[in-house]
Fold:
Amino acid sequence: MTEVYTADHVLPVGAPPLRQGAVAVQDGRLVAVGTRSEVLGAFPDAQVEELGNAVLLPALVNAHTHLEYATYGGFGDGLPFGDWLMNVFGARRPRLAPGDVEAAAALGALLCLQSGVGTIADASYSGAAVAAASEAGLRAIVHLEAFGGPDQDAEDVVAALRERLAGVAGSTTPLVRLGVSPHSPYTVAPAVFAALDAFAQSEGLTVMTHVAESPAELEAVDAGTGPIADALRSLTSVEATGQHPVDLLAGAGLLHPGVILVHAVQINDAQIALIATSGAGVVHCPRSNAILGCGAAPIAGLRAVGVPVGIGTDSPASAIDFDLWAEMRAALLTARVREGRPDALTAEAVLELATLGGARVLGIDGLVGSLVVGKRADLTAVDLTGTSYGVTESAATSAVFAGSPERTLLTVIDGVVRYRKGADTERLAACWAAALPGRTRMIGTDD
Structure:
């Protein structure tokens, strides 16, 4: 059966917007993108869904998530970075009971769908994101996190990760695949990082790592001292390398296509050039960086030299929620503040980062990220009714400024509707009810 979705505005990304547009879907694939009259004329017997005063666009790509931290919002707010890490993950996470992590990950997956997200790239401490993404019908790359200080044997760390990957492999679907996440250059010593990267390359897996996020990280990686090193001292030592994290990875041959650098806030022009030459991609998480006081990443500079850039929400532990629309607006605002000019990042550009840009970073831009005949049918739609953008001058500006989970009409992944406004109200309520007891335990109160 052919399904046709029509809307007052269709935003293909990479091609001009269409007024009174439509897309046709067959067997999970886009078979037509054009005006309403063109598409309906080509498929007169199709099942048609009229979305009305809305922007129909590619499903968003949330290029960095932690689904299992869906209930961590606000913990440690205002603490310095090292103290925040230990407050959230050292003190609170151990209070969780069996089932709490899985319930939070399931909630996180549904909240991503509600935000119009079709694809996520997750960094998962427990592996719970694999089943959560699979059950939600998300397209996902779930990177299992690995840690290992200078006192740990690199091959032992790789062997443990290999075992964990095998343990969750049964929960994958054709839409969900696995990856490797050496957590960061301060929690993974250079020799361990190199072994994990070699393993990932041998298995054809992408590598996601948190890099150059905060000034405290730079001191930890350079000298093995400072607030992050002090905070982690009870768990592991931090190897002093005498280098900036990006210089360290580049010098060791650990920047290459398939490597996903999350944050990249504390970098200079020379390090931007290293990333550009390497073929690695960057994921920008502006709200997390702002809330933790880490700074604003040089997105204009990265884009100017052709670095693939996507946008991620990180998690509610550091960025409020999984609302990728809010993340886009934060990216736009922080880029303009950093550069001191209103064209530093436009609505069209930031929407591209949250769709096709993120797909490029993940290496799946041949499948998703834009509405092109032959690509998979990953779609979302933003309702403009009742907003100041209801009469639209620019579809991209309207979508970016008006978009929200509450205005997401539906999220389609591989041709299947995985979220629909109104129809999933009870499902959302059930997920919240299942997940919130874990938050209560982490707070340490029964109130």
In short: The radius of gyration is 21 Å.
